[in-house]
Amino acid sequence: MARTVVFHSHRGGTGKSTVASNVAMLIASAGGRVAMVDTDIQSPALDGLFGLGQYESSLGDYLLGRCEIEAAAHPVGPPGLRLVPALGRSCRLGEIMATGYDVGLLPEGFNRLSAVYELDVLLLDTHTGLNNETMTAIACADVLVTVVRAELAELVGAEATVAMARPTDCRRSVVINMSPGGVDPEAARQRAEQLYRAPAVVLPYAPEISVLGGERILSEARPNHSLVTEFRQLISVLLD
Ligand SMILES: Nc1ncnc2c1ncn2[C@@H]1O[C@H](COP(=O)(O)OP(=O)(O)OP(=O)(O)O)[C@@H](O)[C@H]1O
Ligand SMILES: [Mg+2]
Questions:
Q1: Going by CA atoms, what residue is nearest to atom 26 of ligand 1?
Q2: In testing the pocket of ligand 1, which one of 7, 14, 18 has its CB within 8 Å of the most ligand atoms?
Q3: Mind listing the pLDDT tens digit for each residue in 46-61?
Q4: Pfam families given for it (predicted)?
Q5: For a tag on the chain, would you pick the N or C end, based on fewer CB atoms within 10 A?
Q6: Who lines ligand 1 at CB under 6 A?
Q7: Which helix (H) or strand (E) holds 173?
Q8: Which domains, ranges and CATH numbers included, belong to the chain?
């Protein structure tokens, strides 16, 4: 049975999609069977990051009953990695918002993906804050990763958000992303762990990511970058 790892944040733009896609790429490169689902229907990013190009089926098509979810899981990156994009040519945001869908289809689809592709890991990228998709994704988490920027005040809001979505416990972790130069990462990690009472990983701000323009993934484009080593460390915190 796959382990479901969910990337969530209380505020937007903290780096959920960036961190999740690098983690996916690295687990698959190491031989794992991985699927990523972009549950961020309102502002999807993963199809662009993975350079998916033209495709027929998406999560939205599955939710509207037009395909099975496995048909929307497109091979990307290294062998063993699949991506379910949020929307596509045949399913636009306006349509799914106007039509609505049965939210129970999400967990059903996640389970089916995991069984059909015999996944080791299922990674869910979410919309910031709380909406139906995000609440459902959090409820399905075996491991919940809260991604925050270096301002630790964000942690308080993040905790309140998660408490609403998930009354029960699951494994937790916090990523302090885009930590600026000059901040002692070990001190930041310890403060985050005290506040959050979960393992924390600090990832530095890497200007090389902006050069990629949201169209490539650092671990593929710059496999020897020091941040890639930090992503590997994060994977061991999440999955070991
Ligand atoms: N460690 C990092 N160093 C430098 N830039 C980063 C880093 N992590 C993410 N970014 C950049 O920050 C921006 C936001 O990242 P990303 O889209 O992954 O955040 P998000 O939390 O998924 O956003 P949204 O809330 O819109 O879904 C992007 O331009 C991305 O390239
Ligand atoms: Mg995102």
A1: 13
A2: 18
A3: 999 999 988 999 999 9
A4: AAA_31
A5: C
A6: 9, 12-18, 40, 43, 45, 128, 177-178, 203, 205-206, 209-210, 214
A7: strand 171-179
A8: 3-40+107-239 (3.40.50.300)
Compute, in angstroms, the gap from residue 226 CA to the centroid of ligand 1. 17
The alpha carbon of 98 and the centre of ligand 2 are apart by a number of angstroms equal to 22
Element (H, E) at 145: strand 143-149
Q: Which of 209, 216, 228 to mutate to test the pocket of ligand 1 (most atoms within 8 A of CB)?
A: 209
Ligand 1 geometric centre to CA of 40 (Å): 14
* DSSP secondary structure letter of residue 143: E
Identity of the amino acid at 174 = V
State the distance from the centre of ligand 1 to the C-alpha of 14, rounded, in angstroms: 6
Residues 214, 35: Cα–Cα separation, whole Å: 20
Nearest CA to ligand 1 atom 15: 15
* CA distances (Å), origin 214, targets 86, 93, 144, 209, 227: 16, 20, 24, 8, 16
| Whole-angstrom distance, CA of residue 162 vs CA of residue 182 | 30
